[in-house]
Amino acid sequence: MDMRHLNFPDNVFDGIWVHASFFHIPKKDALKTLLGFKRVLRPTGILYISIKLGNGEKFDRKRFFALYTEKEFKDLLQACGFKILKTRKSNERGEKWLYVFAKPA
Question: Are 9 and 37 a contacting pair, CB within 8 Å?
Answer without folding.
Answer: no
